[in-house]
Specification:
heterodimer; A: alpha+beta; Ubiquitin-like (UB roll); 2 helices; flat; B: mainly alpha; Ferritin; 0% strand
């Protein structure tokens, strides 16, 4: 079973509570989707962490290239006007 | 659990206490066996999955022992029942004390037992004893998962590689002699089925066969031929491996009597 060709890697996403989004919490090895879901339940929800689980094959994730970091992310660095911090919030609105 | 108002309307309360301890012993001993895999599982994911099941079984044993002790009313708590008895006083099914064997063997043993217990707890949900119905309410969800998880493994191993198929087939043949004892219904078990306090073990057999043949067919494995089987666990007659199991299980209480932490 240590042959990872038979047990590929899966990424696990857990939704902690109703209303919140699924969040990535880790990965695991499993033979197929059913076993991946059960393993995720056993590994990541032992302490009532979850209401819902997603698993997807890690190989299906399309990731940005670390070498593209400058092109992808640096241009956002000096555009502070994109943060919604230049508005006066009326007191009646309360916490946003 | 509040048992002060327990209204146990059966002919023989001693039978109920005995049967509760039998069930508790099944869960304690099999839980201990499963816990032996901790740190040795074939993959990290199973190294958590099996102790999870073991802890469910221990929890069920605790509830059963606690209720039995309170009915008995002789001051024995769950620990006293779990740890302070001699080998012949344990009345678990022999299948629960069998050595783990390989992973296929452990999964099939768990499937045989959990499939039985899941149907047992389903029936016990409508027990006329509200304490038993409450224990069943928790256990039925846990055992449902045990069946699910072990069935998926048995199917994948049985219908897997040549080696996993052979090991699974060996497991069916090695465990077959220990299946019939699941359904044995002696006077004590029958007394508890009166007024639907606890399910009669024999009433589970047909349902067990239906569910098991469905799973084993998917696993491309034969049904166990179990009609001629080993027996004696309920009377305290154990296999050789039980003494070794108890030596480890009871070590702390034997070395440091009444110790707590």
């Amino acid at each position: 079973m240590t042959d990872t060709a038979q047990t590929p890697l899966w990424e696990v996403f857990i939704r902690p509570r109703n209303g919140l989004a699924h969040r990535h919490c880790g990965s695991l090895h499993a033979a197929d989707a059913t076993m991946a879901l059960q393993a995720a339940r056993d590994v990541y929800t032992r302490r009532e962490e979850g209401q819902s689980i997603w698993v997807i094959p890690s190989s299906e994730i399309v990731a940005s290239d670390p070498n593209d970091k400058e092109t992808f992310f640096d241009p956002a660095g000096d555009k502070i006007y994109r943060h919604p911090t230049f508005y006066d919030i009326p007191d009646d609105v309360g916490h946003m | 659990m509040d048992v002060a108002n327990a209204n146990v309307d059966i002919p023989n309360q001693a039978s109920l206490i005995s049967q509760l301890i039998r069930l508790g012993d099944d869960h304690l001993v099999l839980g201990h066996r499963l816990s032996e895999w901790c740190g040795h599982a074939p993959m990290l994911e199973e190294d958590l999955a099996m102790p999870n099941i073991a802890l469910d079984l221990l929890g069920q044993a605790r509830a059963l022992y606690t209720y039995a002790g309170s009915l008995e009313n002789k001051g024995r708590d769950e620990d006293a029942i779990a740890y302070n008895r001699l080998e012949h006083e344990y009345t678990n099914l022999l299948i629960c004390e069998r050595p783990n064997g390989d992973f296929a063997h452990t999964m099939l043993r768990q499937l045989f037992f959990s499939c039985f217990m899941h149907q047992y707890w389903q029936q016990a949900l409508s027990s006329t004893d509200e304490n038993i119905a409450a224990i069943a309410g928790k256990a039925v969800k846990e055992s449902d998962y045990h069946v699910r998880h072990t069935a998926q493994w048995v199917i994948r191993l049985g219908d897997g590689t040549d080696e996993s198929a052979q090991r699974s087939l060996d497991a069916v043949q090695q465990l077959a002699p220990y299946v019939n004892e699941l359904f044995e219904t002696d006077d004590i078990a029958a007394a508890c089925a009166v007024n639907k306090v606890l399910p009669g073990p024999s009433s589970i057999e047909a349902g067990w066969n239906v569910q098991m043949s469905d799973i084993l067919e998917q696993a491309k494995l034969p049904m166990p031929e179990y009609q001629m089987g080993q027996s004696g666990g309920r009377q305290g007659r154990h296999t050789e491996s039980m003494g070794y199991l108890l030596a480890e299980l009871q070590f702390l209480q034997r070395s440091y009597p009444n110790m707590q932490w």
